[in-house]
Design brief:
The complex is a heterodimer of chains A (about 325) and B (about 375).
Chain A lengths: L3 E12 L2 E13 L4 E5 L6 H8 L8 E9 L2 E2 L5 H7 L4 E4 L3 H4 L6 H12 L4 H14 L5 H4 L9 H13 L5 E5 L7 H18 L2 E6 L2 H7 L2 E6 L2 E7 H6 L4 H9 L38 H5 L5 E2 L5 E2 L12
Parallel strand pairs in A: 3-8, 3-9, 6-7, 7-8
Antiparallel strand pairs in A: 1-2, 1-4, 4-5, 9-10, 10-12, 11-12
Chain B lengths: L2 H5 L6 H9 L4 E13 L4 H7 L5 E13 L3 E5 L6 H9 L6 E6 L2 E2 L6 H8 L2 E4 L13 H11 L6 H14 L16 H13 L5 E5 L7 H18 L2 E6 L2 H7 L2 E6 L2 E7 H6 L4 H8 L39 H5 L5 E3 L2 E3 L2 H4 L18
Parallel strand pairs in B: 3-8, 3-9, 6-7, 7-8
Antiparallel strand pairs in B: 1-2, 1-4, 4-5, 9-10, 10-12, 11-12
The chains are: A alpha/beta (about 325), B alpha/beta (about 375).
Chain lengths: ~325, ~375
């Protein structure tokens, strides 16, 4: 059984002109100890998927369909109070900007100890010892001194390490990391990725890694889900998706990334832009930009279907019944 | 210097490329010993009370590079290394504290008269990072694009001006009717196209691009990079390109300068730099490029972070993070020296103490 199962998740934003469907039938699974990358361009719904799973959708956004199961139990139907118990304890979260995840008025020690004591029944002294241990684990030098520092006394990379230690403090089964390295410089980014990988291996924590950066995914993830306009376009092992993308959108995306040692005069260009939520075309949402479009794409919406070994893609060209010649 | 061009395998745009190599000997921009210091001291009274000295931030210190006509020179580095300050110095948004900027052999500081300076400024333009902040939300797109035309008085009649704006919009892949709209009606990528159209409206020869694609999604970034290459081939433009993204820089540049804490560590042709990086910081940066080839290369992230530029380390600013640092590196600032096509500022490289680079740029089977 998978650790986390998301089935046909739908998220809507009610507006005066009717509801906007921001997530339209997202299905994915994360196994124990696995890193699932979720990649897509801004507005594809990747962060929204993460927020819906931990129950932190910003109103007026709300889940209007689908099921989310953690260790086999529904968590999308839990009350706010019950969900609070799951957050932090079972599912940890890391966000993009470490400064907004930390309270600037409290020392990082106080924030860590508070979090530990909310989830575990331990004395303040034991919690402090655990906090120091965690800070050491994420690579903060001299943790027994640094524990009494305030967030502003740390650099960006160090702050993100503190946020990671906060997410890990109750030993959660799953961490949702939303763009954890986007605000960091490249050399720091490499350090944080290496740290995240090491810790998850050691703690057997599963990670849902949300990012727009295919490079980060290639370095870190086991499997990857490519999102487009509120839906999963393709899902599969990361090596296969990077080397042999199936969905035309993924093919375009991979060709659009400039690579060192890859000499091309022009990059692959996907014409146009991702549709806005109120202008999603009928049929496959990618059809106006797709180089392989045919009639069926404009009429019917493709679900994820097998597209060769280790591959699932939401694209009619892989439809066994009505394949185009 | 010839290396990057000879090595590039370009099929299309042959005419423009030929023009590019003919003009090769000619420098568009020469920068010599360029420096910019900012005074970041506390106010006078606070300083007197605390007996604190003045604090000087050396944002750029002793930079020298040349940009040839029709080529792309890129500056890469992490945040705070001073690369954006260089961009602002070059276009005249900052006054240099020291050093010279020569545009076609003429020192920019010597240009005094209004008419002369306007004539010079017409020939260079800038594209900024944030397409949301760099377009006035209260202006129609056609007025934004026509602003340089009006400021420099290039076209007098309204009709001709409208034609020029329509042509520019078409050139950057938008439609002439878009000129009537306001910036908020466009996406980030389209806004960056508008910025480019505005930069092109005074027929410049030299564009300074400060992280023009950093705020964009990859597929939109590809559109903008392709557009920039097309325009370069068509008009023989010269670019000074500022970026932190090594892959983008590799894709676009003829020559690359790597910056660290206000100084240039290494300058070399683009292919050459990635094939045989010399300076230890360049090697560090190349190590951090994500492995999209899926070779399973285990990376060793380099420890440490960029130090505070207000109190940079003594000697070579990179020595606290450098595995090859010795006493000389800790005390003496290395000067740039010429070695096998690279200009490198490193004692270890100069003394031949560096091991050979273990970073051969990964070869990708021609997939796409």
């Amino acid at each position: 059984m998978a650790l986390l199962e998301v089935e046909d998740l739908r998220v809507e934003f009610p507006t005066r002109r009717g509801a906007l469907l921001a997530l339209d039938g997202v299905s994915l699974e994360i196994n124990e100890g696995e890193v699932l990358g979720v990649v897509g361009e801004s507005g594809a719904g990747k962060s929204l998927t993460g927020a819906a799973i931990i129950g932190l959708l910003e109103p007026p956004g709300r889940v209007t369909g689908g099921k989310i199961r953690l260790e086999g139990h529904r968590i999308d139907t839990l009350s706010y109070e019950e969900m609070r118990n799951i957050r932090g304890k079972k599912i940890g979260a890391i966000f993009q900007d470490p400064l907004t995840s930390l309270n600037p008025l409290y020392t990082i020690g106080r924030q860590l100890i508070e979090t530990i004591r909310v989830h575990m029944d331990v004395s303040p002294e034991a919690a402090r010892a655990r906090a120091i241990e965690l800070l050491g684990e994420v690579g903060i030098p001299a943790p027994e001194r640094r524990i009494d520092s305030y967030p502003h006394e740390f650099s960006g990379g160090m702050r993100q390490r503190v946020v990671i230690s906060l997410a890990l403090c109750a030993n959660p089964r799953l961490i949702i990391a939303d763009e954890p390295t986007t605000a960091l410089d490249v050399s720091i980014q490499a350090q944080i990725i290496a740290l995240l990988k090491k810790l998850c291996r050691e703690h057997k924590t599963a990670v849902m890694l949300i990012t727009h950066d295919m490079g980060v995914i290639a370095e870190t993830a086991d499997r990857v889900a490519v999102m487009y306009a509120g839906r999963v376009a393709e899902i599969g092992p990361v090596k296969r998706v990077v080397k042999q993308p199936k969905h035309p959108y993924t093919v375009g995306l991979m060709g659009a990334i400039p690579m060192v040692g890859h000499d091309v005069e022009r990059l692959t260009q996907i014409e146009g832009a991702m549709p806005r939520l109120n202008e999603i075309p009928p049929g496959c949402s990618f059809n106006p930009r797709c180089p392989k479009v045919f009639d069926k794409c404009r009429m019917e919406r493709p679900e994820l279907m097998p597209a060769g070994r280790n591959a699932e893609a939401a694209c009619w060209q892989f439809d066994k019944g009505g394949r185009r010649g | 210097m010839r290396k990057p061009l000879a090595g590039s395998s370009i099929r299309g745009g042959a005419v423009a490329k030929r023009a590019k190599s003919e003009a090769q000997a000619e420098s568009m921009l020469e920068v010599r010993d360029l420096a910019k210091y900012f005074d970041v001291s506390k106010p006078w009274l606070a300083r007197m009370i605390e007996r604190a000295p003045r604090q000087i931030l050396k944002a750029v210190d002793g930079l020298a590079f040349d940009i040839k006509k029709g080529q792309t020179f890129s500056l890469v580095g992490e945040s705070g290394c001073g690369k954006s300050t260089v961009a602002k110095l070059v276009v005249g948004l900052h006054k240099p504290s020291r050093g010279a900027i020569r545009f076609e052999g003429r020192d920019v500081a010597d240009v005094r008269s209004r008419a002369d300076s306007a004539a010079l400024r017409r020939r260079w333009q800038m594209i900024f990072q944030d397409p949301y902040a760099s377009l006035n939300p209260r202006w129609r797109v056609r007025d934004i694009i026509a602003e340089p035309i009006r400021v420099f008085g290039l076209i007098k009649s309204r009709g001709e001006q409208d034609e020029k704006v329509a042509a520019l919009l078409r050139q950057v892949g938008l439609s002439p009717v878009d000129g009537e709209k306001y910036p908020h009606e466009f996406s980030g990528g389209q806004r960056q196209r508008i910025s480019i159209a505005r930069a092109l409206s005074s027929n410049p020869e030299f564009l300074v691009c400060d992280e023009p694609t950093s705020a964009l999604d990859v597929s939109v970034q590809a559109q903008i990079l392709n557009l920039m290459k097309d325009l370069q081939n068509e008009f023989g433009l010269t670019y000074l390109f500022i970026s932190h993204n090594l892959a983008v820089v590799y894709h676009l540049s003829d020559k690359i300068g790597v910056m660290y804490l206000g100084r240039l560590c290494e300058v070399a042709g683009s292919k050459e730099l990635f094939a045989r990086p010399q300076h230890p910081y360049t090697r560090l940066l190349l190590e951090t490029i994500p492995d999209l080839e899926m070779t399973g290369r285990e990376r060793e992230p380099v420890a440490g972070e960029v130090p505070n530029p207000i109190n940079p380390p003594s000697g070579c600013a990179f020595h606290p993070r450098c595995p090859f640092a010795n006493d000389r590196c800790r005390s003496e600032i290395p000067l740039p020296t010429e070695r096998a096509g690279h200009t490198v500022a490193c004692h270890a490289a100069e003394e031949g103490r560096l091991p050979d680079a273990k970073f051969p740029a990964p070869k990708r089977p021609s997939a796409s």
